[in-house]
Amino acid sequence: MIVSVVSMPEGIVTRATVSAARERMAASRFLLVDVELPREGPPDTTPIARELGLEAEDLAWLGREGESARAEFLGDNARFVVPLVEDGRVTDVHAFVTGRYLVTIHRGPSGLIGGFFGRLPHERPADTTAALFLLLEDALETFRRSAVEALLQVEDLEDEMFENRHPQQVYRLARLRRRAAELHHALLPYLQAADETITRRMMSGSFPEERQRLAASYQRAARMVLASIESLQDASRRTFASYSSLVSGEQNGVINRLAIVSTIFLPLTFLTGFFGMNFTYMTDELESRIVFWLLAVGLQALVLFIALYALHRTRIWRKLRDDGRDDR
User: Fold this and answer.
1) Where does the chain have alpha helices with state H?
2) Which of the residues 16, 138, 203, 239 could staple to 20 if both were Cys, CB 3.0 to 4.6 A apart?
């Protein structure tokens, strides 16, 4: 377990043991504590909250793996399980906030927390609640970046399909569509819980005006990120529809060419079947070579002429020809 302590407003980042962090939390007026747990390992027998001196029984969820999204303001503290995107996968950060300190817990190194700590000396949040909203907005930004990156890949893939279509594009598109569903599935429950909690808190008369401004800014950012993910979903559906249209167009071109070939060879098939019938009249009366060739060539030419004339008069031939040019 690695514990980092940030003293605000000075913005000094130090590493500390759990006992040292607990002592500083008890003495400090404004402190940020980050706990990095190993990604894999045996489950902790002692809850993290107890090790940090947070003895409340309802903090057993803090740092526990597999926790669902959480966004709560209870009295003078807040409890959040915030989803974020790290290295292409969805993970989460646990946050517990009081008026004196902000505790964040995550598994493995986190670029989000590193960037958050790097911003603190420049942003200089007024209190732990302002620091919490900075953290929440940074987490939203990871979803936005991931959605925009996937959206650009979908658009490039759609352009590539029109230039040179091949089956591998379907698998790439399916992965991107699955990515959009994963982002939406991970973010939507959290945003619904956070929006409900923050809106209820903002309606309370005890919520300061500055915090209301931070909450309203966060809600706007959340709606924009959700809209980006929904745009990714719409783009992936549109690209799938475009691919299906291209495949249907190619199939229509093949069917059109088969129709033209069938028009030419269908009379031959009829003549083959007609002269192949073993009737007495066929064997006794139509035994002259001249009669055979007149019927064979004459019927073939007559049927073909009638078919081509019908196609030309009904403009079907022209449509088949134009479709064949478009396919090429």
Assistant:
1) 18-27, 48-51, 111-123, 128-163, 168-202, 209-275, 280-284, 289-313, 316-327
2) 16
